[in-house]
Design goal:
globular
Amino acid sequence: MYYVDKTASVAGLIRDMMHGHQLVTAPHGFGKSLMMSAVDAFLNIDYRGNIWFDRLDISEEHDLDIHRNAYPVVSMDLSRVDPEDIEGSMPILVSELFLEHGCVPGPEHTLIDLCRMKSEPDGSRVFVLIDNYDRPIVDAVDEETRKKNSVFINRFLHGIVGSDFPVSVLLSGIMRMDGDFLDVFDVQYLHEPLRSRSLGFTREDI
């Protein structure tokens, strides 16, 4: 078994997240979900005290030491949403997130409510990681459903980035979705030659 250390690229992404919202796009199989897991593992205060990154490249990035396992993190994967019933399945996914974080969901609670709970009482910045953010659009069976899901996700994400508490959002998907809210995101296209070595294996790695 071989391990190729790509954590230096994760370090760069975490630095970017400290200054604004990020959208990472790449085709299927580029390692986006693994990248999201690595960001969660590095930032999430619930994992404080772990040694997972010791002796990896990111451990040499000492400017990030103060950020290691220092923040509440909320992660969700929109591939778990039913693209044919996004309005019905999204609340179920959010309720499951409440329970995962030891919170009791109310009938009208949203992801923003959960993030606000995680931010209180000291006003901590919350990192929201949304993997496969565009999957309900990509997997929709017809154009009408794609448009409906696009509007829903635009509204959903617009609410998060416009929150009244400190929040940084990281999205991953295969495309850059249309929407005014994305103007606040720094878009990183990992399939471009200069970025394509960030994740996965290259010929040199092998």
